[in-house]
């Protein structure tokens, strides 16, 4: 639902009476998503060089364990 300035709120009040903190949840979610994307980018950039500099050819999570 979209409220334009001067419209009446469904509860009978003015749209200016809406909680001013209504955008705080969106800001928190957007910042959390930004941190997730930055973390994934850092890992994807740092992981290949660290694997190449490792004395083993395959990282531990690629090795097969005996059954």
Task: Give an account of the 3D structure.
There is one protein chain. The model has no long low-confidence stretch (mean pLDDT 77). 45% of the residues lie in helices and 0% in strands. The chain is rod-shaped. The chain has a domain at 19-53. The protein has 67 residues and is mostly helical. It has 1 helix and no strands. The longest helix has 30 residues, at 24-53. The protein has one helix at residues 24-53.
What share of residues are in beta strands? under 5%
The residue-averaged pLDDT reads 77
Measured between the Cα atoms of the first and last residue, the distance is: 58 Å
* Total helical segments: 1
Spatial extent as radius of gyration: 25 Å
What would the principal axes of the Cα set say about the shape? Answer: rod-shaped
């Amino acid at each position: 639902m979209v409220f334009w300035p001067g419209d009446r709120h469904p509860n009978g009040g003015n749209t200016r009476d809406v909680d001013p903190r209504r955008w705080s949840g969106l800001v928190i979610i957007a910042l959390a998503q930004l941190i997730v994307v930055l973390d994934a980018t850092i890992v994807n950039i740092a992981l290949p060089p660290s694997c190449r500099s490792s004395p083993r050819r395959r990282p531990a999570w690629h090795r097969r364990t005996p059954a």
